[in-house]
Description:
By secondary structure, this protein is an alpha+beta fold. The chain has helices spanning 14-20, 23-44, 65-78, 82-92, 96-102, 123-143, 145-148, 169-190, 208-217; strands at residues 49-59, 103-107, 113-120, 150-156. 54% of the residues lie in helices and 14% in strands. It has a 4-stranded antiparallel β-sheet with strand order 2-3-1-4. Helix 2 (23-44) packs antiparallel against helix 8 (169-190) and helix 4 (82-92) crosses helix 6 (123-143).
Amino acid sequence: MTENPTGPRRPATVLTRARTLPAWSLLAAGAVAGGMLGGAYSLTQAPTYTATSYVVAVPTEKSDPASALGFAQAYGRVATQLAVLGDAQVWAGVPVRTLKSSVQTATSPDAPMVAITATSSRPDLAADMANAVARALTRHADTAQSATNVELQQFARATKPTEPSSASPAVTGLVGASAGGLLGGLVLLVRPRRTAEEPGRPAQVPGPAVAADAHGQL
């Protein structure tokens, strides 16, 4: 009676099967899967619109441009505080918590200007929030003008945006494809390498007959 010296074949594992695939297939599969997921994510998200209003700090006769620049930086930090947003909610028609999460400000180190940017899923609401915060900020600045000697004026009102500022499905698809290709490359680096032996076949051992002959020779 003879036995199969190699024993039963083991079922192929995932890593074993991955080892037999060509290198480019992992990169292509990752890029395709990532692109599809990125495009699908963009389609499921509502578009976002952004509107920006600008106010400028103007020095009075008792002040100078350097002071106006410094107060513009200060007003940029105050614009998103509760005192200003509490007044802005009346004109924007949204609660303070919505303004707090939707409005951001930016200042320039070279110009005494404050940019007030609002984002929303509605283009008209984005413009209304930006203009409402700008209006409330200028009113707060007017109450302190006698002490600061700086006047805050509306420079440019926010207009209703015509196109969303959020990324399009094509852009998110490209980002997803890049990420998927990167993951595919990482899998390619860690997958097992090909060897001279057939994958899944254990090392050969002597059968019983061969072992008996060897014992007799001793």
